[in-house]
Every structure is written in structure tokens, then in C-alpha cells.
DNA sequence: AACGCGCGCAACCGCACATGT
DNA sequence: AACATGTGCGGTTGCGCGCGT
């Protein structure tokens, strides 16, 4: 084992004083892959195909475990792997599918072509769990699930819609508007809002759990809510969240009118402006979904339980 | 400029299950 | 049936980078 290989055995200098053992597995490299290793792996797979990872690792000349080779191929080198810039639609799908399947990342990844289970898992941990932590609640708690259902997902849909609108108006395709090339679960529905005044050519797949019941399409819901296809929460759900509907959003209140952290009253237009500010065309698609106002807004709901 | 800190992500680990002998 | 080997999955780790001080 040469010095470089030995140093690659561990990421910290604290291990460099250890003597190499006679275990054959200690001859295996660990840590980041080099360009040379990548090209060796790709060339081998192009010639021999993927699979039989242990024999691949041995025959290719790579001093890597079969597992490591498989992981590198699936998560990085495989054709059509997409990394970074999780689109709004993908974010929406991840939230919906996770609420259905939980931490079954590979299952969720099936419906996001080009995305690996590892990337989705990382997205969940770094973005979603962080928000739960900021709200001081467990990501699996009913409170957080409700927050996702009634606030996060509707606002995500609104952003997708706004993004589609800007596409129609400008004629410039955006990442969001064109990211329809995924295969939804069998029971997912393709929404078509092209006949509404606001939507233009807007399509996206949606979990039927977020579609209104046939009876829920009655006169009770707002136009925006109809468009968003968000089911009216039951009165029980609303009382649990201690919130009430207004302008297609749900507002928390203990006295009939919400207020900001400084005590000033929340106006409906405040939230509409806030919503619009999220949909600025050309904005960072992977920006934090929640601004401070949203965090505070949700904390009010959770604290009132 | 130097330092510390937090975040994102690539990679590793342990376990469970499938398949082969 | 029992064991060995291969594969896949979810959880965890820690490096590298950017940012604030």
C-alpha cells in the first residue's frame, strides 16, 4: 500500500498512525473517486455491462469494493443521472410520495427519473427535516404533516402555477414548466388547467390524496383553491390547526384575525404579496421554500394546539 | 487574512433479503 | 437445509465549500 492509498483509507489524520493490517480488505481504497477510477469503471461497464459488482471490482483493476463500484455507478456515473436543482415539481412529488411511503427512498426515486434515492434522501434530510427542526416538531408528527398539507404543498403548487404562467407570458420555457417527464404512480391524476383564466398551459401530476372529493368541488371553495385542487380541510382539521380559510390560504387565529410577530394585523393582501414574491421568474429553484414569515406563521399554528 | 461554523452531498456502513451452490 | 455470495436499502458520517465574524 503506497502512502496515497494509505492516506485515503481515512479522511482524518488521526488514523494515519495506525499500522496497515494484513486484512485484504484494507487494500481497498475508500473515499472520493478519482477521474481515473471513474473512467476505468465506465469503460469496464461499457464493455461488460453492469452487475456482478464484486467480480467487476476484482477484474477491472480498481482497488474498490463491489459495493463502492455499484454506488459510484448508480449515483454518479450512470447515464441520465441528474444532480442538483431539484425542481419545484420534484419537490412537490417528494413531499407527496414521502407522505405516502415514508422513507422508502428507492421507491420514491422510481417516480423521479434521473434522481437517485441517495439524492432524494439528502434533500429530505437537509431541507425538510431542517424545517421541522425550526418548527420544533417531529417531521413525522401530525402537526408537521398538517403544515405540509395545508401550507407547504399548496404554496408549492402556487409557485409551480406562477412559474407556468411566466412561461406562457414570456414564451421562455423554464425548468419547472418542462419537467413533466416523470412517471407517476398509477393512481396519480394529470391536472389540466388550460381552460382556466389564470393558468395557461399548466399540467402536473398530483397525488389523488390531495384532490378534492367529488362533493368538495361545490361552491364552498375559492377559485384558487379549485385550481390548486386542494381538498377543503374538514372542520375538525381546521379546528385542530386553529386556522380559517381566506383568499385560498389558511390563516391561524385565536381571535378572528392573525397578526405578525410585531403585533400588527395580518392583511389578506400581505399574504398575496408574499406569495407573489415567491414566484419571481428566474428565482433560485432550490431556494429555501419557507421564509421567516412562513416559519412564524406555522409556529403560531403549532403553538395553538 | 484567518478562523470557526453550518450546510450540502458523496460515500460508507450495517443489515436484510435474494440467489446460487 | 445450510451456508456463501451478491445485491439493495436506509441510516450515518465526514469532507469540502461558502459564509459570517
From TrEMBL:
Domain named HTH myb-type: residues:
25-77, 78-132
Which residues does the UniProt record annotate as the domain Myb-like? 25-77, 78-128
- Principal localization reads nucleus
Q: Which SMART domains match?
A: SANT
Keywords, A to Z, come to: DNA-binding, Nucleus, Repeat, Transcription, Transcription regulation
In terms of Pfam families, this protein maps to: Myb_DNA-binding
GO CC field = nucleus
Compartments in which it is found: Nucleus
Presence of the UniProt keyword Repeat in the record = yes
Q: What are the GO BP annotations of this UniProt entry?
A: cellular response to phosphate starvation; positive regulation of DNA-templated transcription; response to abscisic acid; response to salt stress; response to water deprivation
Q: Where are the transmembrane segments?
A: none
Q: Name one GO molecular function term.
A: DNA-binding transcription factor activity
UniProt keyword annotation of Repeat present: yes
* Annotated protein name in UniProt: Putative transcription factor MYB-HB-like family
Organism, as annotated: Rosa chinensis
Amino acid at each position: 500500500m503506497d502512502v496515497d492509498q494509505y492516506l485515503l483509507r481515512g479522511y482524518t489524520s488521526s488514523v494515519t498512525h495506525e499500522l496497515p493490517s494484513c486484512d485484504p480488505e484494507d487494500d481497498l481504497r475508500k473515499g472520493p473517486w478519482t477521474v481515473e477510477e471513474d473512467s476505468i469503471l465506465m469503460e469496464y461497464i461499457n464493455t461488460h455491462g453492469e452487475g456482478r459488482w464484486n467480480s467487476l471490482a476484482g477484474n477491472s483493476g480498481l482497488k474498490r469494493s463491489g459495493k463502492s463500484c455499484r454506488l459510484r455507478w448508480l449515483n454518479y456515473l450512470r447515464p441520465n443521472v441528474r444532480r442538483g436543482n431539484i425542481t419545484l415539481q420534484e419537490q412537490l412529488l417528494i413531499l407527496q410520495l414521502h407522505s405516502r411511503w415514508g422513507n422508502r427512498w428507492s421507491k420514491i426515486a422510481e417516480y423521479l427519473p434521473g434522481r437517485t434515492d441517495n439524492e432524494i434522501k439528502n434533500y429530505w434530510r437537509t431541507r425538510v427535516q431542517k424545517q421541522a427542526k425550526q418548527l420544533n416538531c417531529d417531521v413525522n408528527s401530525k402537526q408537521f404533516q398538517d403544515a405540509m398539507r395545508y401550507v407547504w404543498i399548496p404554496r408549492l403548487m402556487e409557485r409551480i402555477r406562477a412559474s407556468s404562467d411566466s412561461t406562457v407570458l414570456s414564451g421562455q420555457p423554464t425548468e419547472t414548466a418542462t419537467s413533466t417527464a416523470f412517471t407517476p404512480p398509477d393512481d396519480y391524476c394529470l391536472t389540466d388547467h388550460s381552460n382556466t383564466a389564470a393558468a395557461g398551459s399548466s399540467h402536473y401530476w398530483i397525488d389523488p390524496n390531495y384532490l378534492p372529493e367529488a362533493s368538495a368541488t361545490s361552491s364552498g371553495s375559492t377559485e384558487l383553491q379549485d385550481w390548486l385542487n386542494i381538498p377543503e380541510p374538514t372542520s375538525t382539521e381546521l379546528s385542530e390547526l386553529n386556522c380559517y380559510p381566506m383568499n385560498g390560504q389558511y390563516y391561524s387565529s385565536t381571535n378572528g384575525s392573525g397578526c405578525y410577530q410585531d403585533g400588527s394585523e395580518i392583511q389578506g393582501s400581505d399574504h398575496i404579496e408574499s406569495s407573489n414574491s415567491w414566484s419571481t421568474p428566474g428565482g433560485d429553484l432550490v431556494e429555501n421554500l419557507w421564509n421567516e414569515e412562513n416559519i412564524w406563521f406555522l409556529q403560531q399554528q403549532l403553538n395553538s394546539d
